[in-house]
Design goal:
The protein has about 100 residues and is of the alpha+beta class. The chain contains 2 helices and 2 strands. The protein has one domain. It is elongated, with a radius of gyration of 22 Å.
Length: about 100
């Protein structure tokens, strides 16, 4: 597998990475989105320290991910329950 050498700039600092061609676009987009969030947090909270900005972004991102995961689990459970009911209905129709 061929790997690419790329640099992702985050908070005015370059990070060299070796990635597969399939990962390149996703990582570049993630870097752009992260820099946009840094700008938003800097403007919203007036924070200039990059470490503080990155820590706050990491915290809110993880909290959002945890919320989405919990919502997905609830959706999965509801879907499983509905599928079980549908299976019961189909079984009763087939047996009738």
């Amino acid at each position: 597998m061929t790997e690419l050498s790329i640099k992702i700039r985050i908070a005015d600092r370059d990070y060299p990475l070796r990635v597969s061609p399939q990962e390149e676009e996703r990582l570049r987009l993630a870097g752009r989105l992260l820099n946009e969030r840094i700008k938003e947090f800097r403007e919203q909270y007036g924070i200039q320290d990059k470490q503080d900005l990155l820590a706050m972004i990491a915290l809110t991102t993880l909290a959002d991910r945890m919320k989405a995961s919990k919502e997905k689990d609830g959706t999965d459970a509801a879907l499983t329950e509905r599928l079980a009911r549908l299976d019961q209905l189909l079984s009763s129709v087939v047996l009738a």
